[in-house]
TrEMBL record:
<keyword id="KW-0328">Glycosyltransferase</keyword>
<dbReference type="InterPro" id="IPR050396">
    <property type="entry name" value="Glycosyltr_51/Transpeptidase"/>
</dbReference>
<dbReference type="InterPro" id="IPR023346">
    <property type="entry name" value="Lysozyme-like_dom_sf"/>
</dbReference>
<feature type="domain" description="Glycosyl transferase family 51">
    <location>
        <begin position="81"/>
        <end position="265"/>
    </location>
</feature>
<protein>
    <submittedName>
        <fullName>Penicillin-binding protein</fullName>
    </submittedName>
</protein>
<dbReference type="InterPro" id="IPR001460">
    <property type="entry name" value="PCN-bd_Tpept"/>
</dbReference>
<dbReference type="InterPro" id="IPR001264">
    <property type="entry name" value="Glyco_trans_51"/>
</dbReference>
<keyword id="KW-0378">Hydrolase</keyword>
<keyword id="KW-1133">Transmembrane helix</keyword>
<keyword id="KW-0812">Transmembrane</keyword>
<dbReference type="Pfam" id="PF00912">
    <property type="entry name" value="Transgly"/>
</dbReference>
<feature type="domain" description="Penicillin-binding protein transpeptidase">
    <location>
        <begin position="370"/>
        <end position="689"/>
    </location>
</feature>
<dbReference type="Pfam" id="PF00905">
    <property type="entry name" value="Transpeptidase"/>
</dbReference>
<keyword id="KW-0472">Membrane</keyword>
<keyword id="KW-0808">Transferase</keyword>
<dbReference type="InterPro" id="IPR012338">
    <property type="entry name" value="Beta-lactam/transpept-like"/>
</dbReference>
<keyword id="KW-0511">Multifunctional enzyme</keyword>
Length: 720
């Protein structure tokens, strides 16, 4: 037994063991073996000085969990949407690795791994002699444990300076590695060190750890690596670029693989026959590029890219994942979460089918739909007639002819958040906004039977409210047709979408109350004009608000109607079912699960039931407590769906946009058609009903096999 083995086998303290190594003259040898420093550079320090220098170094390795890949799944927990990572990595236990890879890595990197205690005396001597003969660094003396220490220091670095210090070729780095390697060997078993090493090593192609390397190069779990495959991967650790087998010339990769195989035979891991057979085999790769971010959603589920983009936008807003947006994005790419999203493959497929049946991808008009679950706010579908892609060179011409002829439109390919969640303002929602006025009126105690005579044109009290219909200094809206003239109630006024009725209702309750109700239901003001008019000093004069001159996103509108379906409980739009950390536990924030619904009451159950009763008039289902006045704007919805349904249609002046939002007790949906590139490109009357059919058909398919639940009628308090 060598002096080093004798002194290190006694397992003194780390500092004590280092001191013994210094006295044995082996630290100087180690530094010289790994570096081209002259012997006297360190030896001149003397035993005491060398021991004192080492005594001031850290006693224990600070191990920060390495960055891991976040996996994002559909609601079923099985269908992978995409992954987020900076370094493709996933921790796996040693038992989930092929025994060939553990044998190969020991054979190629540290044949005496099971004999030393972190520092290999024979390796130091061998490297020292080789380097002296070469006149420089031709051979290193780093053990697997020392290499692991270097990886751990690299992964735990918080600044560029710390990262440099972890990898730079200096005597100080070698000394620190040596000391910490001894500490690690006292604390961890050989198997634990080997497992951590294999989960941290870099194999090239952004693959960190054996799980990622096996997937990238062979598209298989590490458990099933063959002898050939394991030897090839083990050979990459030394120099991933130099021995990259994915290049055209595999000569260097083959030589390195064969070297590893020879080493495996030399240490007795495999037989001579196994080695000979393995070296005759060709390198056979099955390369894969693991998806990363929303642009990598598989083609089969490309339409889910818009939902993925919304999820990413939502994540950036959550303080649970970091203090800043950058912190949260880094957490998403490094945290190793398992995210089960709320997107339902069945509902999404139905929505896409019906969206594309109405408007093809190569149309400049965007036709999209969002489906939300009442009572949770969970988004189960986001469908739009676009392909989620950055490749837009072959897109159609821009619909705004004032644009340069070289400017392409955002169809069929785009990554714009057309359904919500980004910085787009949305689209004017037209008469959909009457729901906010009606809810404000009901919340103020006005009953459904509240009546006004609705003339064809009405001279409002509003003077400064913007809108296309004006007479003199006042805003004078008009109805879409003369048949609406007459006395209307909330039932008939909402069912027929009578403008002059709702302007009077808005005057009665106060435009500022309607604006406040929209804000309570989650609407944000994203244009300078909307933000100004929604302020307290201007909202009371915003008469045109009830006719939907403000912009809104499909997610906001769908969730507003979901709040009515949930009988007055508003839930924030939520794209997740569960978020689990690497240990399998739910991610928490301030004592609650991050993925849990976030709901609160914004108006009473009776207000919601009253609004629903009026909204039934729109769809042809009919009110329970009053008269709809003989007709509604969207009778095809109930006729198509065949179950209790309420909702509201919405068109803007000259049919610039066309919306429909509908809900059952189980689901709420909102669909629109508009030109996102050019708001002045009118959809026309031919597209005025497609959103109605899309919502009805999607809800029909999504609810197939589920019970036909009815709405609860309102009490007399808000009826008469």
């Amino acid at each position: 037994m060598s002096y080093l083995q004798r002194v290190t086998s006694r397992r003194p303290t780390v500092a004590g063991r280092v001191a013994l190594l210094v006295r044995a003259g082996l630290i100087a040898g180690l530094v010289i073996a790994g570096l081209s420093y002259p012997f006297t550079a360190l030896a001149g320090m003397g035993v005491k000085a060398g021991t004192d220098a080492l005594a001031n170094m850290p006693e224990q390795l600070t191990e920060v969990p390495a960055a891991q890949t976040t996996y994002v799944y559909a609601k079923d927990g099985k269908t992978l949407l995409t992954m987020f990572y900076e370094e493709y990595r996933r921790q796996v236990p040693l038992e989930d690795m092929s025994p060939y890879i553990t044998q190969a890595i020991v054979a190629s990197e540290d044949t005496r791994f099971y004999e030393h205690h972190g520092v290999d005396a024979k390796g130091v001597a061998r490297a020292f002699v080789a380097n002296q003969q070469a006149g420089g660094v031709s051979q290193g003396a780093s053990t697997l444990t020392m290499q692991y220490v270097r990886m751990a220091l690299r992964d735990s670095a918080k600044t560029p300076k710390e990262a440099l210090e972890a990898t730079e070729q200096t005597a100080a780095r070698k000394l620190r590695e040596m000391r910490l390697a001894i500490e690690v060997e006292q604390r961890l078993s050989k198997q634990e060190i080997l497992q951590r090493y294999l989960n941290a090593a870099y194999f090239g192609h952004r693959a960190y750890g054996i799980y990622a390397a096996s997937e990238v190069f062979f598209s298989k779990p590490a458990k099933y690596l063959t002898l050939n495959e394991a030897a090839l991967l083990a050979g990459l650790v030394k120099a991933p670029s130099a021995y990259d087998p994915a290049t055209k010339d595999q000569g260097a990769a083959r030589q390195r693989r064969d070297y590893v195989i020879d080493q495996m035979q030399k240490i007795g891991s495999i037989t001579a026959a196994q080695a000979a057979t393995a070296k005759k085999s060709k390198i056979k790769l099955k390369l894969s590029a693991p998806p990363n971010d929303c642009v990598s959603v598989p083609d089969k589920y490309n339409d889910w890219g818009f939902f993925c983009d919304y999820f990413k936008s939502w994540w950036r807003e959550q303080p649970a994942f970091g203090e800043t947006v950058l912190d949260r994005e880094e957490n998403l790419r490094r945290g190793g979460y398992r995210v089960i999203t709320s997107i339902d493959p069945k509902v999404q497929a139905a929505a896409m089918k019906h969206v594309l049946n109405k408007e093809k991808r190569d149309s400049p008009f965007a036709h999209g739909e969002v489906v939300v679950q009442p009572g949770t706010g969970r988004i189960v579908s986001m469908a739009v007639n676009r392909k989620y892609s950055l490749h837009q060179a072959a897109n159609g011409k821009h619909s705004d002819h004032a644009q340069d002829s070289d400017v392409r439109g955002n169809y069929p390919n785009t990554v714009n958040p057309l359904l919500g969640g980004g910085d787009m303002a949305g689209y004017q929602a037209g008469s959909t906004f009457k729901i906010f006025t009606m809810l404000a009126a009901l919340d103020a105690g006005l009953p459904l039977s509240t009546s006004f005579y609705a003339p064809e044109r009405f001279v409002s009290k509003y003077i400064t409210a913007p809108g296309p219909a004006t007479c003199g200094t006042h805003w004078c809206p008009k109805n879409s047709n003369k048949s609406m003239t007459g006395t209307q109630t909330m039932w008939s006024g909402f069912g027929k979408s009578v403008n002059t009725y709702f302007v009077q209702l808005e005057q009665r309750v106060g435009a500022e109350k309607a604006v406040a109700m929209a804000e309570k239901l989650g609407l944000k003001w994203r244009t300078e004009v909307d933000r100004k008019l929604a302020t307290p000093e201007h909202a009371s004069g915003w008469g045109a608000f009830t006719l939907g001159v403000s912009d809104a996103t499909p997610i906001e509108i769908a969730n507003a109607f979901a709040t009515i379906a949930a009988e007055g409980r508003y839930c924030e739009p939520l794209p997740v079912m569960a978020i689990r950390k690497t240990d399998g536990t739910d991610a928490m924030y301030r004592g609650r699960m991050i993925a849990a619904p976030r709901c609160h009451r914004v108006f009473s159950e009776n207000v919601a039931r009253a609004a629903t009763d009026a909204a039934r008039c729109v769809t042809g289902y009919g009110a329970d407590r009053g008269s709809c006045g003989g007709w509604g704007t969207s009778p095809m919805v109930f006729a198509t769906l065949g179950r209790p349904v309420a909702g509201k249609s919405g068109t803007t002046d000259n049919n610039k946009t066309a919306w429909f939002s509908g809900f059952t007790p189980q689901l709420a949906a909102s669909a629109f058609v508009a030109d996102p590139d050019n708001p002045e490109h009118y959809v026309g009357t031919s597209r005025s009903t497609i959103s109605k059919y899309t919502v009805a058909e999607t809800l029909r398919d999504a609810l197939k096999g589920q019970p036909k639940l009815d709405f609860t009628p309102p009490s007399d308090k808000l009826v008469w």
